[in-house]
Structure formats: C-alpha cells, structure tokens
What we know:
Layout: H1 3-7, H2 10-13, H3 19-25, E1 34-35, H4 47-58, H5 71-85, E2 95-98, H6 100-112, E3 118-123, H7 129-135, E4 139-144, H8 155-161, E5 166-172, H9 184-196, E6 200-204, E7 229-234, E8 247-250, H10 253-266, H11 272-284, H12 286-310, E9 322-323, H13 334-345, E10 347-348, E11 350-351, E12 363-366, H14 371-387
Parallel strand pairs: 1-10, 3-4, 3-5, 5-6, 6-7
Antiparallel strand pairs: 2-8, 7-8, 9-12, 11-12
Helix pairs in contact: 4-11, 5-11, 6-7, 6-10, 8-9, 12-14
Amino acid sequence: MDLKTTYLAKHVKELKPSGIRKFFDATAGMKDVISLGVGEPDFVTPWHVREAAILSLEDGYTSYTANAGLPELRREIAEYMQDYFSVSYDPNHEITVTVGASEAIDISLRAILDPGDEVIVVEPCFVSYAPLVTLAGGVPVCVQALKENQFKILPAQIEEAITERTKAIMICSPNNPTGSMLNQEEMERIADVIISHDLLVLSDEIYAELVYDGNYTSFAAIRGMRERTILVSGFSKNLAMTGWRLGYVCTPAEITEGLLKIHQYAIMSAPTMAQYAGIEGLKTGREDIDEMRKSYRQRRNYIVQSLNEIGLSCHKPEGAFYTFPSIESTGLNSEQFATRLLHAEKVVVVPGNAFGKSGEGHVRCSYATSMEQLQEAMKRIRRFVETL
Ligand code: PLP
C-alpha cells in the first residue's frame, strides 16, 4: 500500500517543499562551505537572556503558562509596542505569545479564513505565507513587488488583485528576502486601499528592529489601521533567539479571541523557559540589539558595495539582513546561478524564485555571517562570475 497516496490529504500532497531547504540539503557532506543562505542571526542569544531561562528552570518553573502567555511577558510586549511603535495594546485581551512568529502567522490565518477566502500575498516573501494560506483553507493571490519599484508593492497593484472574496493582505516590511522597507507615506497609501475595501492586513514586523536607514513605522500605527491589523512579531531576529521558538501576535480583542482558541487547542502555551528569557530580553536587551544592529549595518554596507563592484547590481536594503542582487547580467537563471556557484565555489545563496515569481533573476544573500566569511564569500563569488 502506498501510504502517501492512500492517506495524505490532497492539499498536503500538492504542497511543494520549501525551495530553501532543498538547497541546504544539497550541501550535505560538503566541506569548506560558506553559507549566505541562512535566515537567522549568527549571534548567540545574549548571556543574560539565556541566564534568565536557566534561572527559571532552577526555580522550577516548568509547567504550562496561561494560554496567551505569561502576564508579565504580555505586559512587557505591550509596553514595548507603546514605547517603540506608538501602538497601544491591552496585554490581557490583545496579545498572544506564540511558538515563534511562524505560529502567529498560522493561527491568525486559520482564525480569519473561511474556505475559499482569498489572501493577497505580496511577493517576493517569506516562503511560508502562501502555503499557510492554503493550509488554512484560503486561496493565496500573489502580487509581485517589482525590482524597478525597489521591491515595494504599489497600492494600484493591490487594488487590481482585490475581489469580493479578498479578506486580507500579507505584507512584510522590512522584507525577507529583499530587505526593502515601506516608508510611512507608502504605507498610508496602501492603508487607504485596505480601508476602502474593508480588508485586514497581516503585517509581519519581525524585522522592525533591524532597520539601518529611515524610521520604522508599524502598520498598526497608521491612522485607521489599528483595528485592521494583525501584527506579528517575535524574538528570533532582533535578539538572536531563533531556537527558542518565541513570537507573538497583537490584534484587537475580537480577533485575539478567535486565534487564541486555535492556539489553546493546538499548542497550549509557548515554551515556559523561553517566555522567561523573553521578559529579560524586553526589559534589558536594548544594548544587545543596538550592538547587533550596528554590526549588521557595517556588513550590509560592505556586501552591497562588493556585490555591485562584482557586477551583480544590488539596491541598498533598508532593513533585515538580506541582500537581493540581480544575477541577470550572468545570463543564468537564479537556480542555475545558485547551483553552479555552490559546486564551483562552495558558497550557498538562495535562488530568488524560492520567494515568488518576481524573485527570479535574483539570489538572496544573507549577511548574518562574520565579516571574514563575507569577505571570503565575495572573493569566491567574484571568481565565479569572472568565469561566466
Ligand atoms: N517571518 C519572516 C519574514 C521570517 O523571515 C521568519 C524567519 O525567517 C519568520 C517570520 C519566522 O520567525 P520565527 O522564528 O519567529 O518563527
């Protein structure tokens, strides 16, 4: 009996595996590989944050927490949202602590989508968005942020994709994989479309703290948008806590009530020791974040200049820790470029088409790796491009 054919649900069978994973698997057994492929900080979680988790274990805090998360952590998140993004959330009814931003996105979509509801997904984007919409019974409608617009989506493009089934739009700014960030005025124009069509925005703000140029604005802080925003964020990127699996979602009480039911049944509560670490991170992690941001900024400046010198034209991303250079001048498509670079020079980059159609012609290079590794990677990429 073929278990897959017999038992796997049709929509799961049809789901494609992540284009990023596929690429990493190809490096198995290879030595001296430099990876610009990873989407996580190269820093270890600050010691005092780790220590808070250790202390919580020593104190015996090993049981479940409240479903929505430790009250103290929710209070800290509310304070942080107010202080840094000027948005006010009630910690008792509008904040849910989740297993990473990943779970926050999943339960938010599952809470709002009826079968067949459409969600506009702005691409290039994080690989999970469209699959999670599908798994929630919705239909992802992909719109392409274009290179000629610095990978920023235009309100008219959103307007064009809206139908009577559209319920929400998913936006990530600063963006993975392009690093591009919407400014306040651009967000206001997008908000006009969202409000006039009575939609929600699922705003993935996980890179909000990793901004190098310009000021960050939260979608929830745009006039008229607080009630329409599902704000997803977490600790993975700003505090280098990917392995702790800690995130959160802030949204009006009526929507929180819905997604919390899913969280309650599916997860119960986020890992307790991670929540204690999160409290410490929010209370006293400011200097660590500032230090890491400073280091990312330096590396961004270096890699953008180097890629452009090599002839892989690259806009200067305002945030996150990715560059998205064009590889069109090489005559290769993004998969060919990434595969040949890996075999010729043992450098991992991710083909842009893994993030959506408009990512073709580009590769994602993460600069969350040491300066020495980056310098060596640039040397190898230059050598590779010269052979083409
Ligand atoms: N959203 C974006 C845009 C990401 O890039 C990532 C991770 O790469 C996530 C969400 C997932 O974050 P977490 O580790 O909090 O689940």
